[in-house]
What we know:
Elements: H1 11-17, E1 29-30, E2 37-38, E3 49-50, E4 53-54
Antiparallel strand pairs: 1-2, 3-4
Amino acid sequence: MSICPKNKSSKGRRDKRRANWKMSAPNLVKCSKCGALTMPHRVCKTCGSYANKEIIPQD
Length: 59
């Protein structure tokens, strides 16, 4: 069984509780090969390299 609230929570009190649900911006780092901004620990989309190794061959 779930807990039933004894009194109604107002919209202001409810929204104060949800005020800290904001999203944070993704952390971006420079690619060591081409200098483009990428997510850390992922293959670079522009040059296809990861840890100075070419993972995806570029034409």
